[in-house]
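Recall the central idea of this unit: under ordinary conditions, the amino acid sequence of a chain determines the structure it adopts. In this exercise we apply that idea directly, starting from the sequence alone.
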Amino acid sequence: MSDNKIATRYAKSLLSIAKENAVLELVKNDIESILVVINQNRDLSNLLNSPIIKTEVKLTILKKILTGKCNATTEQFVLFVIKNSRESHLVAILNSFLALYNTEKGLEKATITSAIELSQSNTEAIIKQLETETKKKIILEKKLDRNLVGGFIIQIGDKLYDASLLNKFKNIRKELILN
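Accordingly, the structure predicted from this sequence is:
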């Protein structure tokens, strides 16, 4: 079974259980925290992906990390994933859960990359415009890339809007080469 199918299947189950137990927000917050820990800790990431390390060892370590810091539903779910030898899919499962949560709540994640730091008023105007176009509440992640020279790139879902000077320079160069 593909990574995406596994992730979606487990994520849907977690979403259903969290809604049923009325702990959806707690589970979402736990999932975000767990992803931060995994992404910032290479050793933990390697542990989860290692076929050499036994499941019991992984369970012991994850229990120590999660106990008392996560909601019981989240802890039981993560341990369930490991017991079923799906730990190498854990990050994909957790990301899939967040995507399903966003869909459930009518949220859309967008990333804006700009050459300079955007002002608060510019950020608010962009969010308002994106919310009008998508008819969803936007969660905006801002990134800086000095290579853009000027302008910005917005990625929302599978759509990309490139209004950067770098892109415009590339397009002019292509035209000049073709002519």
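The longest strand covers residues 107-114.
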